[in-house]
Amino acid sequence: MRNITAQASAAAAKPAGSDVAVEVRGVCKMYNEVEALRSIDLDFPVGKLTTLLGPSGCGKTTLLKIIAGLIPATSGEIRVNGNVVTGPGPERAFVFQDFALMPWATVMRNVAFGLELKGMGKDERQSIARKYIAEVGLSGFENKYPHELSGGMRQRVGLARAFAANADVLLLDEPFSAVDEQNRRKFQEDLLRLVELEKKTFIFVTHSIEEAVYCSDRIVILSRRPGRIAQVIEPDIDREADPDAIRRDQGYLDTVEEIWQGLKRYVD
Ligand SMILES: Nc1ncnc2c1ncn2[C@@H]1O[C@H](COP(=O)(O)OP(=O)(O)OP(=O)(O)O)[C@@H](O)[C@H]1O
């Protein structure tokens, strides 16, 4: 495990030896009188999964929304692929907690919708959508409607839609919170496979320390509100290993424990 807490500055929060997809510089966010985020400096490396972890209300979702361009920072700036963010853009896809699927459209139409908006022909967009529907494990469900799917399956549709739109940066806000424990584990394994396969930059918010350690290349721990970077941890996990073996691995367990020791002071 690489722990780069000591110098939680822009330099410290910079990943070693990799390209940067998203740069966060001096980001502060006020909601009227409420200071949600204070002076966030952070780099998100290309092709890696970075998790934002921290106590409830520390500004994780706020930071994700600012990166998505859904809300503005009060000060500071975000760059994606070197360009300053001024609003949402096609290179970023937000996978919402509540799925945000169109209830009147099939899985196929939901997944292909971004391509339809771009004016792509039906055959081409369906062929792209089919590929990603298969990648998230939903082959055979193309003609189903969201209400015919479980929460976990709807979540997968949301992911497939983000992949089909060919975004470089995927922003996932607690994507597994609405699914049961077994499905959650299966999803985590699928997510790791997709990170490997797709080489996209994933920014992930979770409340689960175990999930963060299992899935992440880097974990950014935010302090209680106003959110500041408290710690950046790079878990040293052999992801080639069997998932059950990883969860029993001493390095994994020690990392979970260390993060818990750091976070438990925030729990009332
Ligand atoms: N639209 C808003 N108007 C006013 N305050 C807000 C708004 N959105 C968020 N906040 C406040 O800003 C702080 C950060 O909220 P945010 O949802 O980003 O935290 P979070 O870390 O994602 O929380 P959780 O872990 O509980 O989901 C909280 O105190 C929240 O109440």
From TrEMBL:
Molecular function GO labels: ATP binding; ATP hydrolysis activity
CDD domains: ABC_NrtD_SsuB_transporters
Superkingdom of origin organism: Bacteria
SUPFAM superfamilies from the UniProt entry: P-loop containing nucleoside triphosphate hydrolases
Record keywords: ATP-binding, Nucleotide-binding, Transport
PROSITE patterns: ABC_TRANSPORTER_1 (PS00211), ABC_TRANSPORTER_2 (PS50893)
Matches recorded under Gene3D superfamilies: P-loop containing nucleotide triphosphate hydrolases
Annotated transmembrane regions: none
Pfam families: ABC_tran
Record domain ABC transporter: where: 22-249
Stored InterPro entries: AAA+_ATPase, ABC_transporter-like_ATP-bd, ABC_transporter-like_CS, ABC_transporter_ATP-bind, P-loop_NTPase
Family: Belongs to the ABC transporter superfamily.
Protein name per the record: ABC transporter ATP-binding protein
